[in-house]
Write a structure and sequence with these properties.
By secondary structure, the protein is mainly alpha-helical. The chain is built from ten helices and two strands. It has a two-stranded antiparallel ribbon. The radius of gyration is 21 Å and the shape is elongated.
Length: about 170
């Protein structure tokens, strides 16, 4: 009998096949098409969807910012940070964090009692780089110079900011 990861999880965790598949995805474990029992095309399509789903929204980015500063932390901690500045309720934050868990943006571990502690799955730099690349691609056709020209043309730029930009360009040219 061929043993795969699902069978091992069934044996060790004593869960249903669907729960095993969910746990594999929840923990970002690497699986094969054989393990999931899905045809190659479906797995390829699912992988493409998962890549698209990992892009955080504005609300998710606010939660990730709190997690990067305090991780691991509970939904209660995230809510305490968000309630004053955004006026959101606890259940709203809880649902958003659960969706982020489904998308793979956060991971969770058992906390004290019935609570869970959440952590961001990607670093702050990696997430910001992805968001920046997506923004530049969508808004400026992939042109960083268009972005800079637009940013400098729409705001009053101080002499100090202009000097900092010149210094940065000089470092890039070396």
């Amino acid at each position: 009998m061929k043993v795969n990861a699902i069978h091992l999880i069934w044996t060790v965790w004593g869960e249903s096949r669907q729960a095993c598949v969910h746990r594999i995805h929840e923990r970002n474990l690497i699986t094969t098409n054989v393990v999931l029992g899905l045809p190659y095309d479906i797995c390829r399509h699912k992988a493409r969807l998962m890549r698209k789903m990992k892009k955080p929204s504005a609300a998710e980015t606010a939660i990730l910012t709190i997690l990067w500063e305090n991780q691991p932390c509970s939904v209660k901690t995230v809510h305490a940070h968000l309630k004053d500045e955004r006026g959101v309720g606890y259940t709203t934050v809880l649902k958003q964090v659960q969706r982020m868990l489904d998308k793979g943006l956060v991971s969770r571990q058992q906390g004290q009692g019935r609570s869970f502690l959440y952590s961001a799955t990607e670093t702050e730099d990696a997430t910001k780089s992805d968001l920046y690349e997506r923004f530049v691609q969508n808004a400026f056709g992939g042109s960083a110079s268009e972005l800079v020209m637009h940013a400098l043309g729409n705001q009053t730029t101080s002499e100090a900011e202009i000097n900092a930009i010149k210094d940065f360009i000089a470092k890039l040219e070396k």
